[in-house]
Amino acid sequence: MTATPETLLENIDEAPQQNDETTLGNSWLLGFDTETTGTSSQDAIVSASLVLRNPASGYEGDSISEWVINPHRPMNPAAGAVNGFTDEYLEAHGSEPQDALTQIAEAVRQAQAKNIPLLAYNAPFDVRMLRTDMEHWNLEPLPKALLTVDPLVIDRAVSKRSGKRNLAMTTAYYGVPPHGDFHDATADTVAAVDLIKPMTVLYPQVGALRLAELMTWQRQAYTSWRNSFNDWLASKGRRVIRDTWL
């Protein structure tokens, strides 16, 4: 299951070419997650994972690549308390950002060429961190448009449940057992990818989404959620949010 970056690229190359009519329920996916020095625009990736998922074989057939990266900037203590990374560990064991980020970006580009969506829970955060880091190190940018799946956006649109919607709570709701501890990039990536099968079973309309309509559907779903959430914020006298999805 664990693959070198070179093997991951080979496995992506061997995956079938998907088209606009491929449905989400039948789609290969490239899961992505990061751990970072913090959550601001000045922070950087310290750990990342890519998980190539064949829908026919599930978790047992995953091809997984992992990176630990020396960000060359200090960890925010609050972030370090969550993800367990220290400045000393990253300096001793982290890859150089230019090397790791180039490998990650190449896998994403190759998957996109196959029409294999990038999947990330709360995708704008991880995609933004990757783009920002690549810009910081003067690397070739990713395409402006990335075919992306965000299980958080999908869950908000189809599930009327109450309570928190962090990854741990959402996987528990859908009956997805964790493979490792949360706030580990690989465990989080696998958990996010694992969500798609139960979501498409419980909500057939999600599984039937064609890749051609996936981005528009998620943007509309996010806007609908944001408008409803802003109504609630305004009723409490709190500042509304103006963020957009990808």
From TrEMBL:
Residues 28-205 form the Exonuclease domain. It holds the Pfam family RNase_T. SMART domains: EXOIII (SM00479). CDD domains: DEDDh. Keywords: Exonuclease, Hydrolase, Nuclease. SUPFAM superfamilies: Ribonuclease H-like (SSF53098). GO terms for molecular function: 3'-5' exonuclease activity; nucleic acid binding. InterPro entries: Ribonucl_H, RNaseH-like_sf, RNaseH_sf. Gene3D superfamilies: Ribonuclease H-like superfamily/Ribonuclease H. Transmembrane segments: none annotated. GO terms for cellular component: cytosol. PANTHER family: DNA POLYMERASE III SUBUNIT EPSILON, PROTEIN NEN2. This is DNA polymerase III, epsilon subunit.
